[in-house]
Amino acid sequence: MIAAPPLLIGASLLFWGWQSGNGFAAAGLALLLEVLRRVSLRFDLGAAEHARIADLCTILFVGLTAVLAVNRGAAHGILAAFQWLPVALAPILAAQLLSASGRVPLSALFRYLRKLKREDPATNDPLIDTSVVYVAIVMIAAGVANLRGPGYYAGVVFVTAWALWASRPRHASALAWALMLGGGAAAGYAGHAGLVQIQTAVENWVSEWYLSGFDGDPLRSTTDIGSIGRLKLLDTIVLRVYAPPAEGERLRLLHRASYNTYVGNTWLGRAAPLQAVVPDAGGLNWPLSSQPAQWRVRIATRLERGRILLALPSSTTRITGLAATAMRRNALGAVQAELAGDWIQYEAEAADGADTSAAPGAEELAMPAHERATFAALAEELRLHGLAPAEALRRVQDHFRGFAYSTWRERPAADGLTPLSEFLRVSRAGHCEYFAAATTLLLRAGGIPARYATGFAVMEYSTLENAWVVRARHAHAWTRAWDGARWIDLDTTPPVWFAEEARLAPVWQRLADLARWAGFRWSQRGELQASDSWYAVLALLVAILGWRLLRGRRVASSGHAPLAKHRVWQGADSDFYAVERALARGRLARSPEIALGAWLRGLAPALPPPTRERLHEALQLHLRYRFDPLGLDDEARARLKRMCRGLLTELGGER
C-alpha cells in the first residue's frame, strides 16, 4: 500500500477541523503527525506493541461513543463520536511513523488475524502503510460533521486529486488525467445533490406521516373533511403537561393556531403575518401580554425539525424557561418558536380571561359561497340572528349534541351536497374537523365572529408520569367565538371521541408507554461531565502506556525520515532487476513509460527460445512478487532467485 504524499495528512486534518469546528485540535494533530514524518527518532516496535496501541484506540473510541450516546442520545452520540475518529486513530499512525519499519503489521488492526497467527505462525502478516487509509477516515469524519455546503465536496475533490496526482503513472497525459478527474467530480456532485434531495424528501414524508401535522403551519391547516377511510390514529406521546388532576379542566384545550378563512377543505390565516417576540433580558422569558399571571403550568413537548407551534392555554400571557433562538406570533394567537433539541420544556404563565389574539375583523364573518345557503338556512332554523352571543353559543352547542362522532367515512357526499352540508343534513356524524368547521361557519351565519382553532385535547392523566400525556391522536380542532368582549373556546365534538379513539389503541400501548417514559426521562437528564482530575488521570495513563511501549526500543537513526521508506515498493529487492540490467547492456534501455513486459517482448526475437521461456517464467514470478498483495512464499522466492541467477549466467551478466 502506497504512502500519503507529503503534507496531505496535515491538509486533510485542517480540512476536518474546518468542517467539524475543531480547529485547534486539528492544527495540533496536523503539526504533530507531519513533524513525526520527518524526525529521525525511531523505535523498534513489533507486532505486539502495534496491537496494544490499536486496542487502546479501540477502547478509547468505544468509551467516547458511550459517553456521547449517554449525553446526546444514541443516534447523535454515534455521529458525534465518528467526528472524532481522526483523534481516536491518530496513535496508530503516530506509532507507524515512529517505528523502524515505517509500517504496521496487518494483524495489529484485526484481532481475527492475530488469532490465525497464534494457531499457525506461518500465516502471512504483511506490513502495511496506514497513512492513505487514515486520510480517507479523516475525510469521512469531516463528512459526518460537514456544513452541507459546496465547501465539503470541493475539499474532498481537492484531497483526492492531490493523492491521485502523487501516485499517477508518469507516462500518463496530465490533460487526460485532469479531464477524467473533472468528469468524475462533476458526476459525483450531481449524484450527491440528487441523493440529498431524495433523503430530504423521504425524511419530510416520514416525519409528516409519523407525526401528521405536528410541526404545524400558522397560516394553513388542511383538513380531512371529505376524505374516504379511517383517520390515522397514532399513540405516540407528543406532549406532557405537568399539572395535578384537579387542574385538568382549565387545561382541557391547548391552542396552537387559529384560522379565519375557509377555502375548499383548507383553513387559512389571512391578514395575520408572524411578528417577532422580543425576550426579556437573558433570552429565556418571552412576554405575550402585560397582564400579570395568575397561574402557570409546565409543558414538555416533542420537537421536530427545529421549529414548532407551541401548545399553550389560550389565556397565556408569558412563556418562561425556553431557550429559543427566535419566537414569533400572529394576531390569531399562534406562537412559533425556533430552537434545537428532541424534547423541550417551558412554562406557560396565564391569567383567567386573558387573550392575546386580536379582535375580529371582516374575515371572521366571511362565508364561502358554496356553503352560504346551507348555513344561512340552519342559522334561520335555530333563530340565531339577534340573540346575545352567550345564548347563540348555547343553541349551537345544543344542536350538535344530537350528532355522533366517527373516524370513518365510507362514501363521498351525494351529488349536490358539499361534505359539510352532507354532515349537517344527512350523516350527522364525523370527526372533530367536521364539528369545528361546521360550528365556525354556523356562528358566522348567525352574525357571531368565529375562528377555526387547532391544538391538542388534554384528557389522559398518567399516574406513572404524574402528568397529563398528550398523544398524536389527541390533536383536536374546535371553534373560537367572539362574545363581544373576548374569544371563547367552543368545542362541539361529542366527548365520546376520546373514548372511541382510546378503544382503537393497540393492546401493547401500556408497555410502549413504559418504554416511552423511560426514554423521555433518560433524555432529560444532565450531561455526564468529566472533571479536570479525570482528564489528568487519562493523560497520566496514556503517558505510562507510551513509556512502557517505547522503553528501551529506540534504534539507531538512518538519517532519513520515514517518508523515504514509505516510498519503497513491495518487491523492490527482486533479483529480476539484475536480469533487466543485464539485458539493457548493449541494447536500448527501458524508459519509465514502457511496461517491463512490453519491453521484454521487443527483445525476445534476439534471444534463444529456451532463454525466452525461462525469461517469461521468471517475469511472471517477479510480477507476482511486485504486485500481488500476498507476495511470494519462501519456496517461490527461492525459485525466482535461482532462475534469475541462471539467466544472468546465460546472458553473461553478474551473479
The domain count comes to 4
Please identify the structural class as seen in this structure: alpha+beta
Fraction of residues in β-strands: 15-25%
Enumerate the strands of the largest sheet in spatial order, edge to edge or round the barrel: 11-14-17-12-6-23-22
Tally of contiguous helical segments: 21
How would you state the average pLDDT, rounded?
83
Structural shape: elongated
Query: How many strands in all?
Result: 26
State the distance separating the first and last CA atoms: 31 Å
Determine Rg (CA atoms, Å). Answer: 38 Å
List the helices and strands and how they pair.
Layout: H1 8-20, H2 23-36, E1 42-43, H3 47-72, H4 74-83, H5 85-98, E2 104-105, H6 111-119, E3 127-128, H7 131-144, H8 150-167, H9 174-210, E4 220-222, E5 229-230, E6 237-242, E7 253-259, E8 261-263, E9 266-268, E10 275-276, E11 286-287, E12 295-302, E13 307-309, E14 316-320, E15 326-329, E16 335-338, E17 343-350, H10 369-382, H11 389-400, E18 404-405, E19 408-409, H12 419-427, E20 429-430, H13 432-445, E21 450-457, E22 460-462, E23 467-471, E24 475-482, E25 487-490, H14 496-503, H15 509-523, H16 532-550, E26 554-555, H17 562-566, H18 576-584, H19 596-603, H20 609-627, H21 634-651
Helix pairs in contact: 1-2, 1-7, 1-8, 2-5, 3-4, 3-5, 4-7, 5-7, 10-13, 11-13, 18-21, 20-21
